[in-house]
Amino acid sequence: MHISSAFDSGNIEVINTDSRPIELAIRQDNNSEFYQWFHFRLEGQVGETFPLRIVNAGKAAYPEGWENYRVCASYDRQSWFRLPAEYDGSTLDFTVELEQPGIYLAYFAPFSWDRHLDLLAWAQCHERVNLETLGQTLDGRDMSLLTIGDPESAKHRVWMIARQHPGETMAEWFVEGFLETLLDDANPAARTLLEDTAFYVVPNMNPDGSVRGHLRTNAVGTNLNREWQDPSMERSPEVYLVREKMLSVGGDIFLDIHGDEALPFNFVAACEGVPGYDERHAKLEETFKRAFLAASPDFQTERGYDLDKPGEANMTVGTNWCGHQFRTLALTLEMPFKDNENLPDPIEGWSPARCQQLARDILFPIRETLKALA
Ligand SMILES: [Zn+2]
């Protein structure tokens, strides 16, 4: 029996392989106390059963994330299914019965750095797309921006950023689905949108954290979604570079794509607590939500975060900073690590395919909101 995690976004520490269950621990993000993302490979005899225990689950960033959570597993690294798990308030226990010599186990279906590069390379070949490198991260990776449509003639600008929190891989699965839809020449909604709208898409806001197997921070332990008021090239070049570009081109809609560890629903959080939140903000938010509800039964508005009180928003959060700075609609979209409890999938739970479908369905609320801008 052997366990390894020395690969892209790998994260696990082996504590004891002689014990039953086998004891494992999740590594903290570098220079930070956050942890919850795990990704490793277990190798053994086909037919053998391995009980596994993550001994430090209870002290993870969001312990409530383990309640009713099922582990993501794959033999071929293409299709991911779920394994039942037990959480007792301190450890997470699950059992693997090997059907092949090796199995990959992860907090959510990984979206690899190679797949990210493939996505950029594929997109740049489309005639409507411009690929731009804004600068480099602290580990020296490129911060890439895709512009879709014609920024010169565009009447509207829409921003979409994803994976500020690198362990939230569902966010980049979502972006992949979004780009495929937007660049589908047979899609009339996409073609209509691109007639007068330019899209600015950052598929991965946190390349270093992604490759390092972090949950929430970049190479030096900075939580990027608390850097928007005062980013720096030393602590948070990712936000600094994207924010500069935002300030230079502006925008009408800002979408920040995330995953939530605990809540088993898709929902959005708006910027109702920023100074100057007004009727225009509220109208755009209402228009967006109503259209999203009409477009997708996977979206809902009953469950989500508590609303910020007027004027009490945390302005270091990307959505709040954008909504305030540009006086327009800014939303955080949260997808579940677990499943959509209103429409569960017993085999896969919330999955890459469902992220991509939700991304297809977001085109309609974007269109409706842009119409309401006029
Ligand atoms: Zn997040």
From TrEMBL:
Origin: domain of life: Bacteria
Matches recorded under InterPro entries: Cytosolic_carboxypeptidase (IPR050821), Pepdidase_M14_N (IPR040626), Peptidase_M14 (IPR000834)
Active-site residues annotated for this sequence: 334 (proton donor/acceptor)
Domain Peptidase M14: residue ranges: 109-373
Signal sequence, renumbered to the chain: none
Pfam family, one: Peptidase_M14
GO MF term (any one): zinc ion binding
GO BP annotation list: proteolysis
Family the UniProt entry places it in: Belongs to the peptidase M14 family.
Annotated protein name in UniProt: Murein tripeptide amidase MpaA
Species the sequence originates in: Microbulbifer yueqingensis
